[in-house]
Amino acid sequence: MKNIIKISLVAACVGLGLTSCQSDLTSLNDDPKHPSILPSENLLATAVYQSSYYMDNPSVNFNNYRFFTQQWAETQYPDESQYNLVTRNQPRNHFNRMYVYSINNLKQAKMNLKNEVETDENVRINKLATLEIEEIFIWENLVDTYGDIPYSDAFKPDENLTPKYDDAKTIYLDLIKRINDVTATIKPSVNGYSTDLIYGGNMNKWAKFANSIKLRLGMNLADVDPALAQSTVETAITSGVISSDDEAYKLKYDGNTFSNPVFDNLVASNRNDFIPSELAINTMNAVSDPRMSVWFTKVGGVYKGGVFGELNDPYTNFSQLTSYFRGATTASNLLSYAEVAFLKAEAAARGYSAGGTAADLYTAAVTESMRENGVSAANTTTYLAANPFNASNWKQSIGVQAWIAMFNKGFASWNFTRRLDYPILVNPPKSNLSSVPYRMPYSDQEYVLNGANVKAAGAKIGGDKATTKLFWDKF
């Protein structure tokens, strides 16, 4: 991976012209339209777009989260729903997008920011905090996708081209510390990057987002380190987490220059092989879920999902995703208020201080998901009356409802299913794996560029397999 970064830097110099990478030049060689040092705000925008678009991308060539949670099925080419992660190199593609195209840009942005003119030092501090929080967000995605990963040695191409793989829990501890440190620096009375694509420089929202990442991390620790989980979760909630849809972490698209990745893959690419799974349809049918009419079309007057992992009948024989998901301007909602609300409900069910009872917070979480999806208050009340919180089996109660609410939010849904083990996901008969995936295997390129370290990492975690559980996934 370090070789990739170094090659990218060399390629950048070649692309700009050799003279742009040298310092002792005449002004005749300066091209203001093609600067050799990109503004940090441009690098931030690139990192945000790359990470958000590809975390949310339903392409069979990338993360495959929607298949890991069995919410989508395929009518043609069912390799991905049969958990073939080799043919299309999904582990490599996601790894490179997050490291090379995303974190690498943020690291460079931090360096460039030091030399940028800024009249208000508090604005500079907030800009640095924005870069740090965005970077932490991507690290959290990586460690919860792969497990142990290159971290402390990463992005040091002049020192080490073969970075070690750090222990995943050690990374968790450092990310929590980094969140605590960065949120303490934020100056809420002034903005950061006014052009940032998520919050437009609003540092109160960036702080709540950071605390919500901390909430995610804390909840994932619940079964492996209960004391640390509780303290992490409670301090995150006390400090202030996302508390409205307006504060959710969303990348918005204009539909022209940039379009939603579901639109790009299903509409613009004219793909007619992605449908809601039978598990999704049947689960929602069983509870008379009013979100179905918002999300899915009917076939012959009924909702019909595809059998996961099987080569199904023609696309037109099944329910399809509506324009609610397929719109060019639909935002990628990667840390939603509904997700935070379900995390708080789970925290309360585990006995943590989360700002309310588990039942009340469960009701608030379901209500927010319904509101987010345009369901009326009356229909929400009816649904909750028929599907109340079940304290005797809260993992099932919260797990199934969170899985439904996180439909089309693949990574968030995968965290819930791995941690709570609901709904129960059955490995398809024609699966390439011995069970459903619990992690993404390491990039095949790492075995070429960083072989000794990736082999050691695989051995340490119990094998570099999709069926190896992450350290926090104990049950």
**How many strands in all?**
6
User: In terms of per-residue confidence, which ranges show pLDDT below 50 for 5 or more consecutive residues?
Assistant: 1-28
Alpha-carbon distance between the two ends: 32 Å
Listing every helix as H and every strand as E from the N terminus to the C terminus, the arrangement reads HHHEHHEEHHHEHEHHHEHHHHHHH
CATH architecture of the largest domain: Alpha Horseshoe
Q: Provide the CATH topology of the largest domain.
A: Serine Threonine Protein Phosphatase 5, Tetratricopeptide repeat
Strand content: under 5%
How is the biggest beta sheet arranged?
Answer: 2 strands, antiparallel
> What would you call the shape?
globular
Whole-number radius of gyration? Answer: 22 Å
| Estimated helix fraction | 40-55%
Instruction: Give the helix tally.
Output: 19
List the main descriptive attributes of the protein structure presented here:
single chain, 475 residues, mainly alpha, Serine Threonine Protein Phosphatase 5, Tetratricopeptide repeat, two-stranded antiparallel ribbon, globular
Describe the protein:
With 475 residues, the protein is mainly alpha-helical. The chain folds into three domains: 82-240 and 424-475, Serine Threonine Protein Phosphatase 5, Tetratricopeptide repeat (Alpha Horseshoe); 261-326, no CATH class; 337-408, no CATH class. It has 19 helices and six strands. The strands form three sheets. It has a two-stranded antiparallel sheet with strand order 1-5. The chain has a two-stranded antiparallel sheet with strand order 2-3. It is globular.
